[in-house]
Amino acid sequence: MKPFRGLERYYFMAKKAKITSRIPEHEIEALARCLLPEILAFYESEEGKEEFNRWKPERNQIICNNTLKQ
Question: Which residues have CB under 8 Å from 7's CB, separation 6+?
Answer without folding.
Answer: 29, 32, 33, 36
